[in-house]
Structures are given as structure tokens and as C-alpha cells.
Amino acid sequence: MSELRQTELADALLRIAAARGLDRVSVREVASAAGVSIGAVQYYFSTKDEMLAFAFRQVVDRTRARVRGLKPGAGPRQTLAAALRQLLPLDARRLAECRVYLAFAARATTSPTLAAIQNATLAAIHEELRQTLASLPSPPSGHPVLHPARDARLLLALVDGLMFDAVTAPAALPPAIAAKTLDLYLERLLPAGR
Asked: Which one is predicted more confidently, 1 or 96?
């Protein structure tokens, strides 16, 4: 029951963060949004940092679960595109998640606890991308050779950059353009016939 209550409190925190930013998150605000007392929040989370870390893990775990739940596409490029689209703000739910994720990532620059979560998240995504790219057959003659570790890093950097721009400058990078940019890069990385 305590994990369920912690998840409910984290959901309240995430709603506040998505709408008004992490600076507006406080034990009082979370208690009010969750409809519980301040003491109830403090019972489940002894510090605000503990509550933030739990909520950050929730965002990461939910996104990764959604990616794991995808059905394989018609080919490697389509499968990668479907998975990586889950990391972009292409609908209202993913936009809220991306806003929260970016807020946590920014706060990770000064919080060792959040930095550890951020580092573990990026390392896991990079490794999964590397493994996916390493598992592909050799390219046909004339096509560029993949370098799984390097290309996974570039792919992750592209998606992170698209997410950042789409959240912070949505008029400059609307969802359709973000998705198309990802597709164009994947076409270069994994040309037809690969």
C-alpha cells in the first residue's frame, strides 16, 4: 500500500511540475494536489529530495515501460523510430512528461541524487540503442558501416536535442517537424535495404 500511496503523491508532484515547474513543488503543494495532509506526505517521503527522486524514477520507468510495450515494426528503422518517438513531445501526455523530464535533468546539474538517476537513465538508453544497432546485419555494399556505440550516442543526442527544442520552442519545432527530423536521420543511419 505504501508504494501505491507514494505513486499517487508522485503523480501529484508530476502534475505540478508539468504545469508550473519544479520550483513550485513543495510538500505543501503536493499534499494539496493529492488531497492529503502535509504529515501524510512526510510519512512517505522524509525529505523533498527523496520525493523528487521517487518522482523522477516514475517518469523514467513509465516512459521505458511504454517503449518496452511497443510491437516490433516492419524493420529496424521503423522499430527504432517508434521507440524513439516515445521520448519526443508528440502529444499532450508526452509533452507533459518531457517538460517534467527536462526540469529534472536541469535540477540534476546541482543534485547528486537526481544526477545519479539521470546518468543511469542515459547509460541504459545508450546501451539499448548500441545493442540494437550492433544486432543489425552488415550493410549492403556501398552503404556506410555502423559504429554502434558512436551512432547510439549520436542518435540519443539527436533525440535529446529535438525534445529540448520542441519543449522550449514549440513554434520553431512543432511535433510533426520533430518526428520528420527523426525519420530523416534514421533514413541516413539505416538506409532502405538495411
From this structure: 96
pTM of the model as a whole = 0.88
Q: Which three cell numbers stand for residue 118?
A: 539521470
Show the cell assigned to 187.
Answer: 533514413
Specify the length of the chain in residues. Answer: 194
* HEC-encoded secondary structure of 92-149: HHHHHHHHHHHHHHHHCCCCHHHHHHHHHHHHHHHHHHHHHHHCCCCCCCCCCCCCHH
94, HSE (Cβ side, Cα atoms, 13 Å)? 18
Instruction: For CA atoms 22, 23, 26, 31, give the dihedral sign.
Output: negative
So what's the pLDDT on residue 1? Answer: 62
Residues 73-104: pLDDT tens digits?
Answer: 778 889 899 999 999 999 999 999 999 999 99
- Alpha carbon separation from 139 to 51, 82, 131, 144, 193 (Å, rounded): 47, 22, 16, 7, 8
How far apart CA 129 and CA 151 sit, in angstroms, is 9
